[in-house]
Amino acid sequence: MPLMEKPDNREMDLLTDGLPPIPILLTKIPKISGTESLLEDLYAIILAKLPLTSIITFKRVCKQWKSLVESPFCRDLYLSMHQNSYYSSWSFMCRGCETETMAHYGSDNWCLTRSLGSYISSFLAEKFENREGRVVAYTDVGLILIYVVTNQSFYVANPVSRQCVEILPHNHAMERFWILGIVTRTEDEVVLGYKVVLLEKKKNFTSFLIYSSETGSWSLETVSFPFTFIAQEFNNPISLNGKLHWLAHNPEYKDFLVSFDFYPSGDKGSDRCRVTPFPDLDKTTKFKRACTTCQGFLMYINIVSVAEVDKLCVWRLKSEGWQLVSEISTDIVTAGFDYIPLGMNPFDDKLVYFWRGNMEGQDLLSINLHIGEFMVHEELERSSDGRVLSSVGGPREIEYIKETFYSSFVLPRWLHPFPN
């Protein structure tokens, strides 16, 4: 069989940068009666043994390869062969910029040779050059939301596969609305649809300006919340399971979590908004309140004074409210704890990470919630399980990190193209 020449594709070169050459015959599937289905099955079995970065490269060879890679059979086969690999590449990113404080890659199905933050930076530089494209939202399904100031357009993209969809702006949208974020509808880890959500807050009502991938257009929706806020923090919403979650303060200056469902199902349409008070409002806490995600749940972490003893507490948001899942007291928590929380491992509910830094140095702290053990990583390092502590730049960037919130950016275990 003749070898197919590698396509002259700049995006493929970027994807395969740093990857070892793979000696495999790339052939078009022959049109031989009675053998085509068998050959496709054999090709799928071969592909399922390769890293996802290589599979992304192969789907660019021809339409037949693309069709095979994107088929449910190939996806199900791949996931069944890698069902014990529950990790995927992920990073903690600073909200409102592309600064990466921690990354995990290289030891999962993707076999990436650099972090997700690096992919984001190279994608922005290649795609937008000097057009001021910046990331305004991250997801746990491999998508980022980009806003370009110069033309007020939005882009939904996967920086690893480099699939990118432009969303033209609504007339005068940015003169009235905040950027709230992006929500997704998924099934079996495949993105079936997404919505870009902007928000306008008035005294007596709130309006959402929503772009839907299903309709390809913007629509305006006005809602009246059955409660009163004196302030809401729209700059750090978390996207999870078709909902956006953000922090708000009631007239008594108590902190609440607002959750709004943008993909309601069945009879839940009338109950799309939920307000949940934080579980430690009557206690002294160390950190400003913020949430993280883990295993498909919204999580809340803080150090709480319980009977004059500082304890690291972790709650999980359930339908009935916050559920306390961990409460530990260790020497490092009680002895002048000067770290700031980054978040939980998106795939492992026993690991939580903290960061500390100044111009003299930075370090990462990981705590095992199940056994109470902790580990301090004092230098930029690559661990055996793919964990990397990213080095942060100058004093201005370090001070920004101390005041910002963090978002988890996670790749799915299988990459299926999202809707255009």
TrEMBL record:
Domain of life of the native organism: Eukaryota
Gene Ontology BP annotations: SCF-dependent proteasomal ubiquitin-dependent protein catabolic process
InterPro entries associated with the record: Beta-prop_At3g26010-like (IPR056592), F-box-assoc_interact_dom (IPR017451), F-box-like_dom_sf (IPR036047), F-box_dom (IPR001810), SCF_F-box_component (IPR050796)
GO molecular function per UniProt: ubiquitin-protein transferase activity
SMART domains reported for this sequence: FBOX
Pfam families: b-prop_At3g26010-like, F-box
Record domain F-box: where: 38-77
PANTHER family the UniProt entry points to: BNACNNG10540D PROTEIN (PTHR31672)
Protein name, as recorded: F-box domain-containing protein
Organism: Brassica campestris
